Amino acid sequence: MAASTAHFQVTTQPLARSVTRRRLPPLRKVPSLYIGAAIVLVVLATAILAPIISPAHPNDQVLIDRLTPPAWTEEGTSDHLLGTDDFGRDVLSRIIYGSRISLAVGILGVLIAGPIGVLIGLLAGYYGGRTESLLMRLADSQQSLPGILIAILIVATLGANVRNLIFVLALSSWVIYARIAFSSVRSLRNREFVLAALSSGIRTSRLLWRHILPNMLSPIIVISALQVGRLILLEAGLSFLGLGVPPPDPSWGNMLADGRNKLLIASWIATYPGLAISITVLGINLLGDGLRQTLDPRLRTV
Q: How much is the pLDDT for 27?
């Protein structure tokens, strides 16, 4: 039995490290991976370098310049490349600073929801029985309610600020991680390398951390990338409704709300934040799709 146990440990070790050791495919094989990564890196760099590259402070009001059109129009000026809003604030500067809030909300929401959901799914899938019934029925209860409705109720009760917004988005996202982890554990817990580890007397916590969790990282990484885009859209929707980032702090959602009543006379106020949301979410989705093709052995072409 000792010999067979050693054999299982040796043959399954590459499985646990497959994510970190896997070589990136060439561009022609998975173009979405590199295109999405390029877009995401540009948006991240913009958010990090906002104080350096922004032409003005996002909340500076110059009323004499209110509703100035973009620079390439006849009435535009090079001082405001994307024009100004109803308070004379520079639209480009607000978009640049708004990327900070949108990315922070999306990334932090995933970083909070991911570990919680994975832990719940691990426990439910491994122990089964009453633990599974309790935890997965909790997930079913949460999933039976629309996420946007839960978000609106909580934000309306606790108040609109960035901290509450991140909490709400994390609360609406943990279920998908729990379900992925649950199904992965159910398929892995009777595999030979898990049984071999159990026969050696390994502790449950070490078994879950060292043997099961590394073999389910691929779908978790992919869904995390896609969830960032989903949370950015949800934050924009809540901010558009006045339940997200409170003004005057810039976010792409409340910029859309500011420009919705002026689409006929100053369409640029809402158009460019909308483009920023679309391009960012497109890049994140392309990155997630590229990661799926790279990490899923059934879709690998190299």
A: 63
**What per-residue confidence (pLDDT) applies to 14?**
40
Domains identified in the chain and CATH numbers = 28-53+77-284 (1.10.3720.10)
What is the C-alpha to C-alpha distance for residues 215 and 182, in angstroms, rounded to an integer?
13
- Report the pLDDT value the prediction gives residue 22, as an integer from 0 to 100: 56
pLDDT at 278: 94
CB 106 within 8 A of CB 225: no
DSSP 70: P
What is each CA distance from 60 to 64, 71, 78, 257, in whole angstroms? 12, 19, 17, 19
Segments of the chain with pLDDT less than 50:
1-20, 301-302
- The reported pTM is 0.82
Is residue 207 within a helix (H) or strand (E), and if so which, with residue range? helix 204-207
Return the closest-CA partner of residue 211 out of 4, 11, 1, 23: 11
Give 45's Cβ-side CA count (13 Å radius): 7
Burial (0-12, 13-18, 19+ Cβ within 10 Å), 269: buried
Instruction: Classify residue 237 by burial, with Cβ atoms within 10 Å: 0-12, 13-18, 19+.
Output: middle
Closest CA to 286 of 38, 72, 77, 99: 38
Residue 16's nearest CA partner among 258, 212, 228 is 212
The pLDDT of residue 145: 77
- What is d(CA 228, CA 119) in angstroms, rounded to the nearest whole number? 19
CA distances from 132 to 62, 63, 172, 186, 296 (A): 59, 60, 20, 11, 27
Sign of torsion over alpha carbons 222, 223, 229, 232? negative
